[in-house]
Amino acid sequence: MATAEVERKRGQLAALSIAVVVVLVGVPLWWRTTETYRAWLPVNQINELAELQLQLSVDVEVVFSRGTLMPEQQKKVPFTRTQEEAQKVDDDTTLRYRYESKYRTANIMEEDALKQPTAAEADLSLHTLSASPCGSVVVYVIPETSVLLPQGVDVYIGHRRTAVLRMGAPMSVGKNHKQLLAHLEPRITQVVQVMSFSHTDITAALSDRVRLSPGSKESLADSMRSFKSSPGYEITFSLLNPDPKSHRLDWDIEGAVHSYIQPLLTKLAPLANFSIDSQILYYAMLGVNPRFDSSLEAYTLNADSLAHVINPVEARLGSNAASSNPVLNFLLYVPDAHHSPLYIHDHQKQPVASNAFHSPRWGGIMVYNVNDLYGRGETPLPVNININMEKVMGVFLAQLRLMLGVQSSPAPPGFLVEPCGGAGLADWELDRLMWSRTVENVATATTTITSLAQLLDQIGNIVINDNIASQVSSTVTSLQLAVAELEAGNLGFALQYSKEAILASERAFFDPSLLHLLYFPDDQKFAIYIPLFLPMCVPILLSLIKIASEARQRRKLKQSKKD
Amino acid sequence: MAIRRLKHTRTHAHACMLQTPLDDFQEELVIRPLHSGDIYASFQFRTVWDADFMGDQKVSHYRLFPKSLGQVITKFSVRELHISFTQGYWRTMQWGQPYLPSPPGAELWVWFQDTVTDVDGTWKELTNVLSGIFCASLNFIDSTNTVQPSASFKPLGIGNVTDHSFLRYATLPREIVCTENLTPWKKLLPCGSKAGLSVLLKSEKLFHSTFHSQAVHVRPVCQDPQCRTTSMELRQTLNVVFDLHTSGQGKREWSLFKMFSRTLTEACPLASSSKVYVDVTDNPQFELSPATPLLTQAVVLGDRRTYSVYDLTQQASFGSSRSLNMLLRWKAADGEMLRPLLHSERYVAGYGLQAGEIHTLIYNHHPYRAFPVLLLSAVPWYLRLYIHTLTVSSKGKDNRPSYIHYQPSKDRERPHLLEMLLQLPPNSVTEVTVEFERALLKWTEYTPDPNHGFYVGSSVISALVPSVVAMDTNSTLDRPLFSSFFPCKEEASYFMRVYTEPLLVNLPTPDFSMPYNVICLTCTVVAVGYGSLYNLLTRTFQVDEPSPGLAKRIANVIRRFRGVPLL
């Protein structure tokens, strides 16, 4: 009997040790060999970034010219003040605006500059004295009696980063230092909001991550019009010639681009890379047949039908095969002799002065009528036509500004904004654009990277290779740097880092290796494992159950023996 | 130069007061009645642009040259680009030589500029972009089907580049060509399919043919005989052969309308020349109406041919009906075709799924002249060539190639490349054979229909064939487009390229439910072994009283009934 007992013990031990080997060696081995490779991602930092807390800092320099300060006030100057304003946009987005104002009195050269006869000249000479860094604002405060600004104008904004502010009447300002600040600060904030950013601009830039409360239709249309921020844009000018038998068109596009478009793009160079090309498309028709209006003796295109114009033309435009940047299309349509003149009518059935229209985030179309060049039927067809590029480029340039988001929002009352000159863009307009583009880039990159992290977290079968991991971590570093630079008020660097972040995040998100999803549905996995696992595990389990039940019985037996 | 200059002034002075860069567009259709009763139509559209694509300045303002192609050339620093899509196989023995040969499927060869540093990377990107432009599966071109021929593909444009590390050549013999490839090809034409010869290009007729080939060739060419300045030439060609029986209802009578279900009504207004040529050398076998007084002679493929010319820029060509629908009616069905001087065949021999042999037969039909040919064959890595079995024989004698360039394959990396220079004796057949072994593929490497077989691209035979008539060596002269594609260096011979048939090889193909079967079988075997082992290890063994046998038990039952004592 004793030998039987020993034998039974040995059997139990063998079963137990096999179970232990299976659990300690088999399971980890199986786990390791069927695992998908997933590189480490900085998930904590990404989660931190998901809660976006942006602080935008502007350096404002306030310069008092002679005659603006009371003696008592003069003693306190120079001094600095910091104003902060926090805005909660939604649950995980907070914005803080920080205005660091430095107050000082004007030096002699600045005083001289302010003595110029007109504000524009003063602006130019102040600019030559000191070039203020990108993103900062300089406000010159001049006495109420100064003749620099015309009557009724309190603030003048020039081409650079300077503004001239007229002081209020001495009695309204008061003698006290505190009273002076109370008088000036709201007005300076107003100037800064025009020249660098306002809360509406920034929230519009955040539209990628924040669902905006439906505001006015106008502002929504404004925010939808301009292109999304991108590291590069392709600008394509296309000349549409619907009937080369009726006219041969010639346009000096090279010269026109050089003299009208290039200055603006050179100015915008820190924002993005632009490439320009042009083409001539023959037999390119509009999508709708214009109606002949006998009262005008002209063909008309209604505002309602404009939506249908683009599609058939777009098939001919051709995408840019050599890059994946967004394309801005500008089309010049020259109707043939039998279909001209062609006028675009707005919703009020009135002809549009520019005879052009634009499509948000796509480009613009202009109709160029040449019927007066056709003579009276004696000239043999085709007629040679040289296009007046000045007229065309004026329209296209205005559309390009809209598409790129260079908005000229209406200035508050009492403001005089110098109209943009040859460069097509004032320094402070560029700054404004850079502020909103930086915020937009940061918002887009964080959204991209958090959704990527979420996706990878949800689908465990995706292989994350080292390349993606390095792109993700470089996105995170660039984002952190961009946020830090924004806080420090270095706009140029912040934009640079935000561009890097967006590039890296897109590369990570669209990496083709993520598509090689190892997708094995659970039922199929089960079907493959069953022939091995079932015959292996059933005996182990059965003998374990048997051992357990025997142990329980023995304990019961002992119990009853004791009793 | 004077001629060229004259042409420019003629075409442009009245066209538009244009400054530089000048561009010029020509269109042309050649119709050649074939002896078999089929008909061959070859379109050529040529855009020449005096723009410097190879300079530092980016070319970005396009007029007649298509922007999409121009951008690709600029971005990838392409010196020359040749791409063709072909459906069907050109039957040389029945049809003679085509004006522009092309292998079945897709073929792409590109010379890059010597400023390109990473040629392989650029090639990969370029094929992907071209695949998008032409809606073709060119993105399947990778290192396993790309070769760098050392001698067969010299630049066709100007530029004496010898460093073949800037050349890439690939074919996709499996590629099927259809409407989706024709539409983007037509989009590259300045007149689209709206005017000129391109109105004839309707896919429902073009693809109802025995042979269809469309190609795009971009290369730099000389502007003048001194070649002081270069311009970029884009040639778009489309060749189609309509079958006598399927398209022609068996009647030896062809018209433009019967071929394309369209007639011509105008020239493309942007074209400086727009002409239709009909090969009437074999007249009076057939009659051509409307008759045209214009006849021209051109030396094509070593033969002087006569063509009737219809100039579409002249209103008189269209006659009173304002549309041109020429009609060719055969009078007699017989007639001997001149045998093509160079001709080739290729096939796979052998049986079973392990080894095989590739035979290439090259025919020289010239009665008394021997000439050299360059043979190029690129064989995928999964056919392992035994290069020591390479034999070349003509007229029963060993024919040693004077030059052999062989690059062995690497599994899953690059194909075999075999190039050799052979001297073909007059009136002979030269046979090149090489043995191979079929490799086993991984189960994910098989195509979706593995039992169809695997294609091996056409071999390419390039030759300078002795010409019967003197060839025209001046490339800048105003000649019909179809006769001026391959540059001609000497008068006594002309350049010709012949593509052999692609091969279809069966590889050992597994049953694709195999992985699951293998898993099940292995698991079962493991489970059986494991089960018995487990049993042995865990079972308790003890001595037991042997139980009475079955017979004894039955006997006992009976005994109990009878009341007899049990056993």
Automatic annotation (TrEMBL), chain A:
Subcellular location per UniProt equals: Endoplasmic reticulum membrane
Keywords on record: Endoplasmic reticulum, Glycoprotein, GPI-anchor biosynthesis, Membrane, Transmembrane, Transmembrane helix
Residue stretches spanning the membrane: 12-31, 526-548
* Pathway note: Glycolipid biosynthesis; glycosylphosphatidylinositol-anchor biosynthesis
Q: Does the keyword Transmembrane helix apply?
A: yes
Q: Which GO terms describe its cellular component?
A: GPI-anchor transamidase complex
Name the domain of life: Eukaryota
Biological process annotations from GO: attachment of GPI anchor to protein; GPI anchor biosynthetic process
Q: How does it sit in the membrane?
A: Multi-pass membrane protein
- Where it mainly occurs, coarsely classed, is endoplasmic reticulum
For this chain, the family text in UniProt reads:
Belongs to the PIGS family.
| Name of the featured protein | Phosphatidylinositol glycan anchor biosynthesis, class S
Which gene specifies this protein's sequence? Answer: pigs
TrEMBL record, chain B:
**Gene Ontology CC terms:** GPI-anchor transamidase complex
Q: Which domain of life is it from?
A: Eukaryota
Report the InterPro entries cross-referenced here: PIG-T
Q: Which GO terms describe its biological process?
A: attachment of GPI anchor to protein
Which PANTHER family does the entry link to?
Answer: GPI TRANSAMIDASE COMPONENT PIG-T, GPI TRANSAMIDASE COMPONENT PIG-T-RELATED
Name recorded for this polypeptide? Phosphatidylinositol glycan anchor biosynthesis, class T
Species for this entry: Gadus morhua (Atlantic cod)
